[in-house]
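Quick illustration, no need to memorize.
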Amino acid sequence: FYEQNCNYQISQLSESHCQVQVRSNPQIADLLRVRKLGNEHICALKAGIFASAPHYLGLPFARVEETHCEHRGEEFCRFHIDFSEAQRLVAQRARELTPPAAKSDRPYRH
């Protein structure tokens, strides 16, 4: 990922959803003499970054929900990312770009 203050792990992945767990990097926290890095506002920033990722490809923003937060006493932060709108749009565009001959069930004849 883009920064080293936290460790990121994709814990679930499907065609339209993703779940990412984020933990403070203990080495960085030790150097800064803090228990956890950041705060709830940084979590909101990360959610916004996750939500905007599909937009860089010209797709709709993802929906993001933080279901766990280490800044509220939990072991890690967990973000559930729903990019089903982007996935639907990609599938629709693929159907539109498929040539009619490729859609046909008729065998090729010359």
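The chain is about 35% helix and 25% strand.
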